Amino acid sequence: MGEGHLLANRYRLDEVVGRGGMGTVWGAYDVMLDRRVAVKEVVLPPGLTPAERDVLYERTFREARASARLNHPSVVTVHDVLEEAGRPWIVMELVQARSLQDVLDEEGVLAHRRAAEIGLQMLGALRHAHEKGILHRDIKPSNVLITDSGRVVLTDFGIAQVEGDATLTQTGLVMGSPAYIPPERVQGERAVPASDLWALGATLYATLEGRSPYERPDAMASLEAALTEPVPPPRNAGPLASVLEGLLAREPAHRITGAQAQPMLAHVATMPEPIPPISFRPPDATLLDEPAGGYHEQTVVDEPADTVLDSVTFEEVTRLDREGPGSAAMPSYGPRGSGHAPPPNLHPSSGHSQGRTAGPRPGTGQGTGAGHGTGAGHGTGAGHGTGAGHGTGAGHGTGAGRGSGPVTPDPEVRTLLETEWAVPPVPGPQTPPPWEQPEQFRQWQQPPPPAHLDRRDRERRKTIVIVTVAVVLVVVAVLAGAFILRDKLNSSAAAAPSETVRTALTG
After folding, report:
1. Has residue 428 been placed in a domain?
2. Pick from 79, 230, 281, 504: most CB atoms within 10 A?
3. How many domains does the chain have?
């Protein structure tokens, strides 16, 4: 048979879409129903005995009957089965899709969510088949089709076993793919629904690891591994680890059922997509240039600033002397009770400080003769010592006060009082701030709009009103004219028949 052959005068063979161990799949056209279909040609190997040929014939018809009993989105629909040229042909639904094996070969292992979605649809097809009493017995990635829309279709029920039918497996012959055969079938036991679930787990294992658990270089090595070796733990199972562990249990009685596996797969299939980690690259360290030759970094050490006065000259905080009888009008500046202050410049004749007065001050006050030094100062004579005050004669102490006699004011030296920290009042009339003079600073406010702008606005409004009234009058006039014209036309139409009747009567 070749391309263009019309099978059973109905199905035109167009091209080969796939080949397998059990035959060739053609893309064909149903000329009667005007649709695309797939036709599976069962190729019988040469050298078969009549009994073996009969077994293959029966297997082909069994596949057709098994698929025809199933009605599920994940199972290929069988349309017809016929025999021509000494071999059977199965006409089925044409699914334009890649096999799961092709996807793994082209894209590599799948993500957990996508693998769970595929497994969930495969499990739905298997549970539907098991409810109908049908076992697939050859589940593997090459028998799973995946469309571009994400639909998963389970194909090739060629060695399916239907409940109630006699087995077609010969003694000592194991049917199926060695890498996906469950251990109990390798041991020669009869297939059960748990056997299909083990093959489903092996297929999911391959989607995550890239190979089946018992994939070996040859078929005999795979069968030996299935008999003697445990399933290698998957490295990329992730959230599907518990599902794979339950499906790939060695003993069928210890495997989870389809009803138990379905919610586990559904949970992983509905998980949100993992957020890719944000790669953070620290900024490269900034390298400093090496200093040029002959350059030597110098460390500058801040020298302490020169003090204005030595610590010896610092005294207690200056306050205003208590005024006594006979004190001058202007107070002297100095410590409270003493009138002492540290001046920035020392006069040789005036000791520690020169007080500030408005004029000569008798009695208490800061006067000459008291200072740090000999003569008038902190020492012998009049200074900080014994006698009256801090020195003999006039000084810091009790007795005759801080000094006596007239005091010469120093215009350069003045210690401010607490009460003089504020701005001194300015003699004369005070001018209030601008915000207290609204009448004088009215120009700071936003001026009203000019009168000519307001007049222009009023004129514009008046013009708009006049134009609007004129338009309304014109519309009213047009409507009135239309009504008058309609009345005249109606009157003329009514008068015309009357004239005709009168003419006829007179005639």
Report:
1. no
2. 79
3. 3
